[in-house]
TrEMBL record:
The lineage of its organism: Bacteria, Pseudomonadati, Pseudomonadota, Betaproteobacteria, Burkholderiales. It is found in: Cell membrane. The chain crosses the membrane at residues 92-113, 133-151, 172-193, 199-218, 230-250. GO terms for molecular function: electron transfer activity; heme binding; metal ion binding. Keywords: Cell membrane, Electron transport, Heme, Iron, Membrane, Metal-binding, Transmembrane, Transmembrane helix, Transport. Its cofactor is heme b. Its main location: membrane. This is Cytochrome b. One of its GO terms (cellular component) is plasma membrane. It comes from the Bacteria.
Length: 265
């Protein structure tokens, strides 16, 4: 009776009497190291021992056509296919993407509440409830914006593609800088406006925030004008920001929008 030659159950190549070839037996031992970036798969997909090499942690490059899921564990790093000289789509990290969309949703809700609550006459319970929610969201946006700014300093965002012109780079830097400033300035002006009105902010109805300024009618009017004006400036910048992202996606096809979208690998 002729017994079939043993083959690897993963790559179907001849193995030395076991269910795995020498490469896959070694890969199973070093799977954690591969996922953490200490090893980088290159060349053939799974089957050559020389397809694994040690690389510097600061130079992690994950080939899309390599060990499955490796790009997921190194998300935010450079992603290229074999033969490419430079990456075209470099995604943001998971933390940066999560903070971006969480803050965006909170700003939309806060703007909507601020828009409708000012049209409610008198001081009805519904209006007071909207005011409280508006203030709580503002405090949350301020805290998340501080954290996002510190995260951005420690983890710089990926650079723009070479197809983006110099004036577009300068414009993007200016818009992003103004957005970060406004995400901090608008909650502060609203907080000071509430204090100048003689109303203490109690975050989530549990944590009373300190009153920085006392009741002051002139300061109250000034802070209200600043708060409303800055919100309209923020709305204008958001429209520019979204329009530019859509233009890069539909016209330039450079992948700028895809690198910030969640649930996209």
């Amino acid at each position: 009776m002729v017994h079939p030659e043993p083959v690897c159950r993963r790559c179907r190549r001849p193995s030395s009497g076991s269910t795995l070839c020498s490469f896959h037996a070694q890969y199973g031992k070093n799977r954690t190291a591969v996922r953490r970036g200490r090893f980088e798969p290159t060349g053939d997909r799974y089957c050559r021992p020389e397809a694994v090499k040690v690389v510097d942690r600061d130079e992690r490059i994950v080939y899309r056509d390599s060990v499955r899921n490796a790009d997921f564990f190194l998300r935010g790093r450079k992603t290229v296919t074999p033969g490419e000289s430079s990456p075209q789509t470099i995604r943001y990290g998971t933390v940066a993407i999560s903070l971006h969309w969480l803050i965006a949703v909170l700003i939309v809700v806060a703007f909507y509440l601020g828009w409708i609550m000012t049209d409610i006459p008198g001081f009805t319970p519904v209006k007071l409830r909207y005011f409280s929610w508006h203030k709580w969201i503002g405090v949350t946006v301020f805290a998340f914006s501080l954290y996002r700014l510190s995260w951005r300093v420690v983890n710089p965002p990926p650079s723009l593609p070479e197809t983006v012109s110099a004036w577009q780079r300068r414009g993007a830097n200016v818009v992003h800088g103004l957005l970060h400033v406004l995400m901090l300035a608008i909650p502060l002006t609203g907080y000071f406006y509430s204090s100048a009105s003689g109303i203490q902010v109690v975050y989530l109805g549990i944590v009373p925030l300190p009153v920085i300024v006392g009741p002051n009618e002139a300061l109250k009017v000034f802070l209200r004008i600043c708060h409303v004006s800055l919100n309209y400036v923020l709305l204008t910048l958001v429209v520019l920001h979204v329009s530019a992202a859509i233009k890069h996606h539909l016209v330039d096809h450079d992948g700028l929008l895809m690198r910030m979208l969640p649930f996209v690998k």
